[in-house]
Amino acid sequence: MKLSDYVLKYLAERGIKHVFLITGSAVANLVDSFRNIKEIKYICTQHEQAAAMAAEAYSRLTKNLGAAMATSGPGATNLITGICCAFFDSIPVIYITGQVNTYESKREKKVRQVGFQETDIVSVVKPITKYAVLVDDPKKIKFYLDQAIYLAKSGRPGPVLLDLPMDVQRSEINPEELEGFIPSDAGGSLTATDYKINQIIDLLKAAQRPILLFGAGVKLANAEKEAGQLINKLNIPFTLSWGAIDLAGHDHPLFAGTFGVSAGRPGNFAVANADLILAVGSRLDTRQTGGKPETFAREAKKIIVDIEAAEIFKDRGLKPDLGIVADAKEFIGRLLGGLNNFRTPNTSEWLKKIKIWKDKYPLCPPACAKQSAKVNMYYFMKILAEELKSDDIIITDTGSNLIWTLQGFCVKDGQRLFSAFGNSPMGYSLPAAIGASIALNNKPIICIIGDGGLQMNIQELQTIYHYKLPIKIFVINNNAYGLIKQFQDIWFNSHYEAACPEKGCSFPDFLKVGQAYGLKTEMINNHEELRSKLKKALASNEAILCNVEARDDEKIIPKLEFGKPIEDAAPLLDRDEFKKEMIIKPLD
């Protein structure tokens, strides 16, 4: 059997139905093998970066491996930004690159290159993969594939890469003679002993203002059901990191809101004033804690549960009172088992206070709806959320559009809302929407992207057109790098260098561009036409690109400025009002 045929058959047998790729001579044998292995298909993107990102989103939606291929040299290096997305968000993806023939490789020679387009991609990506290997022996192909997939999906998941030289791809092998990889039984890493579970229960019993905090690790562990059971059992408020923003519907009576440097005030007030935080599957980085982690929930006992000890004990100012190394699903299961006779503490006053915060500081204040010129982004997110169905998939990009979405979009139970949170590159949401649609049998996907982000991967409009994917693209057009301008307001006295047309950063007519790619287009100018045009776009069974006109000076509100605790975001509340809302002693 030809080795390239074997690789595709192997992937297909593990449930991978699609591979995102761009062909090239160094990967041509693998691409040609798709003719022989009918159980798996390739999807052609226009850029390898898009293939890498599409594969990452494909993995998120299938809860299986995503896969992407690229040729050697520039093809392989173009994958890197997408590989970073998978690595930092712990998404299992297998990347396969072509490489020059083994007899053309520079190996240990003190030269830069021997074969055409030769690049040591394995060394390049080792810091951003769980496993990367050059397959230079055809007889080891099964071993390498087994090990790669095991590592991609075990423990904290992540991307892996196999680099296949051309002569290895075309080798003839006997599958019956191949030796596989047998993982060592290292046993579980759970440190949630009965003693620690009892400690947690005692802390929960004693707490007056407890809060559950769920992160992306809960979703990676497929522990959504268990998290819901824990919420219902404890009957205490919960908050979500952005990586877990779709873990529950935001209309849940116990949902306090999200938290972090760009989150709304209710969730941040709740976290700041808690006396006990049980954080499961969240690494609590500085985007969540603020630039001074020692100020985060400073009067609360903190129980932090993570699958990696290094994430718990980072020594960056946030010190857990109890750290537990555990898979989220296993931990929650153990905790639920210990709660059989648990009596929920009386948290009625605490829940009442959180409701006051949510009513007083809504996602979309009434003033947003009254904006007369162009479209207010908080109002846009409110209306979009109202119009979408409970099984819709929403993917947002980065910059202002990311924050407006995650601040202002009220998630319904059953929806998916995500982005590449850790790496957060401009241009992610368009290829991610492609991967998501392919993963779900050409399902319509909601893609939210900025005018700057779309320019990074605008060529993928051709992929959408070619495969007839019914993706709804909402381009948030403020004619600028809006988040950078807001940063420049704070740090550079509003000198908008390289961030707006007057300073060299300009944008095309996106409707004309969309039409040139064969897509339907729509302009959304103001609030008066917003809902009707949204309904029209969402009702279409085709792809559509909607240009949403935003003011070039619209800000992210609220947004934390460096040095402040997360409960004290800009624009600062009146000091008397702020002190009135605080239960613990405020920091001025």
From TrEMBL:
Protein name: Acetolactate synthase
Keyword Protease assigned: no
Keyword RNA-binding annotated: no
InterPro entries: DHS-like_NAD/FAD-binding_dom, THDP-binding, Thiamin_PyroP_enz_cen_dom, Thiamin_PyroP_enz_TPP-bd_dom, TPP_enz, TPP_enzyme_TPP-bd
GO MF entry, a single one: acetolactate synthase activity
Family (UniProt): Belongs to the TPP enzyme family.
Pfam families from the UniProt entry: TPP_enzyme_C, TPP_enzyme_M, TPP_enzyme_N
Positions of the Thiamine pyrophosphate enzyme central domain: 197-335
Annotated source species: Candidatus Buchananbacteria bacterium RIFCSPHIGHO2_02_FULL_45_11b
Taxonomic lineage from the root: Bacteria, Candidatus Buchananiibacteriota
